[in-house]
Structure formats: C-alpha cells, structure tokens
Amino acid sequence: MDRLAEIHLLSDGKLAAEEFVVLAAAVHPQVDYIHLREKKLSAQELYHLALILLNAGVPACKLIINDRLDVAMAVGAAGVQLAGNSLPAAAARLAAGCSLRLGSSVHSASESIDAASQGADYCLFGHVYPSTSKPGLKERGLTQLKEAVLAARTPVIALGGITPHNAPHVLQTGAAGIAVMSGICGAADPLSAARAYRNAVMEAAPEGGEKA
C-alpha cells in the first residue's frame, strides 16, 4: 500500500530561537520531521536548542539535526542531515550505525546514486523552484528532480520553492516527500500554512495511500 508523502520542516536561521521553538511546538502534528538547520550556532548552542525543542513537546522521533552528527546522537534525535561540507555519508553511517536516519543533501542524479551507495536513508534534493534561500542560483526544476528520483536507490525529498499549490506537481515525479522552510517559517500564520501543506500532500496521495 502506498504511503503518504513526508513533510520536512527546516528552520531557516532567521527566527530567534524562542520563536522557532514556539512555531515547531505548534506545527509538529502537521509535519513528519523538523530539521534544526542553524548554521551559525555552535555545537553547544545547537545541543541546547535541540533540548529546548524536545522539552517543548517536539517528539525526538521527528527531530533531525543538520550537519552535526555528534549533536544528533547526544540528544537522541531521529536523524542527521548531511550537507556538502559534512562528514561523508559512509563515515557517518559507520559512526552512527543504524541508530539514526541518515539524510544526504544532493543536487543531481549522480549525487543521489553516490549518497545511496554510502548508506544514506534518503536524499534531500534541491532546489527545485526559485528559492529565497538560494538567491541568484538557477533552480534545477522538475526534470532534474525526476532524474534523481529514478536514479536513486533511496527515497528523495524535494526542497526549494515548494508551495501547497505546486506540491502535487513535485510529488508526481515520484519524490517521497517535500521539504519546506520559508513557506512555514516565514508565514504570517505558520500553523495554517503547515495545514495547507498537509492537505496538499493528502490530496496528492494515490487512492489507498496512508501515512508513513
């Protein structure tokens, strides 16, 4: 039976820590994973923010730490998202074993193949549409996303400029889910925005699809 596509919420580094904690605690029932993507924070600061999120009610099974494998393991997070300058996926898998869900950020079909061969559990592919987080960089589009989906031996999550309106087009490529930053973090009403994404994913699901 088909499973409902995943929704990953990524922090955008623009909200104050207190604001993001309130937002995450409110919207987590509408999303499958919450990524702490705070590139300016030290490992210690990231660790403390993760603990605050957990204490605010965000389930550990939904928490993914960007880049920092050590922090993800220390707080008992569900997974770690590896970027281009992170540990290689193979090294992270060796260190973490099967205890963490391992994501790898990719930008092409060949990179998705490499990530899967190194033990990544999923690939985060971007950016699909023009994105405010990547100003001046040309989007990769649905064609390249579909190429990555077909090439990968692991689920592909699409990122970049995805809205509730275009999410069905993204999922028609075979992507296993969508990732959102400003669409929720920058919304005037983040909870309503998260619900709109959830409704879009549910409406795009094949008949008989169910939540993972």
Report the principal-axis shape.
globular
Distance between the termini: 10 Å
Uncertain runs: none
- Sketch the major β-sheet: 8 strands, parallel, barrel
Overall structural class, as computed from helix and strand content, comes to alpha/beta
Describe this structure in words.
This protein is of the alpha/beta class and 212 residues long. It has a single domain (6-204), classed as TIM Barrel (Alpha-Beta Barrel), CATH 3.20.20. It has helices at residues 17-27, 43-55, 69-75, 89-96, 109-117, 141-151, 167-171, 182-185, 190-204; strands at 6-10, 33-36, 63-66, 79-82, 101-106, 122-125, 156-159, 177-180. Strands 1-2-3-4-5-6-7-8 form an 8-stranded parallel beta barrel, surrounded by 6 helices. Strand 4 (79-82), helix 4 (89-96) and strand 5 form a beta-alpha-beta unit. The longest helix is centred in the C-terminal third of the chain and has 15 residues, at 190-204.
Q: Which short descriptors sum up this protein?
A:
212 residues, 9 helices, 39% helix, alpha/beta, eight-stranded parallel beta barrel, TIM Barrel
